[in-house]
Amino acid sequence: MASKRGSSSKRGSSSKARLSRKAEAPSKAKVSRKVGPRRKKSHALTGGWLRVDGFDGGPRFHFFGQNFFLAGSGADSGNCHPQYCLPPLGCPGGPFSVESQFAGNNTFGIGPSIVNNQYYETISYAGLIQIVGQGTLSDTRGSSDSRKSRAIVLAPFTLSGNLVGLDGPEGIQDKPELFDLPIHGSGIAVVELDVVTSNAPFRYVFRSVTYDITQFTLPKKL
Questions:
Q1: Which of 132, 179, 193, 194 is 20 to 30 Å from 115 at the Cα level?
Q2: What φ, ψ does residue 128 adopt, rounded to 5°?
Q3: DSSP one-letter string for 46-61
Q4: What is the pLDDT of residues 212-221, one digit of tens each?
Q5: CA 10 to CA 66: how far, in whole Å?
């Protein structure tokens, strides 16, 4: 009889072990299935430009990439560093930032777009575009010829952000979202400034900046 009780004890022990292993298995499986949040793929810009004119102008843009084209104008002005060179004092020569940030929930301009072979004739945009870069504003001799009294800054830049296409005219809230496209790119910024020659050293007043998406690289010394 004693041997039977011992056998029963062993069976009970092994049964508890099996139950314990079964209880542990699902929890391990759950841990292994956990994944982090998925991020949207950022799409590379292959061509195009973004341009700002005048002291209070907003961005206009044409962007090309694989399976998409985005065009917009009439956006509100943003935080465009080259626009800080206001008259009458302007900016001095030396290191020159082309950093800019443009953002809007409903005021990022309007225009046509093509995304994944779908053509949208006129949509409004929301989103965010950030640009980072720096060049050098070199001293330039003034001249009575207006064509020679302007200075040019060339600077490499990188661009990142996202543009959201909205179905409906600008200014209307709660419009249906057509697409949300993360983008990135790089290129050369071309800043044009007027030279103020009334006093030395010369000062420089903003006219325009164009951020060209290109694979071209500037030489180390211009």
A1: 132
A2: -150, 135
A3: EEEEEEEESTTPPPEE
A4: 999 999 998 7
A5: 68
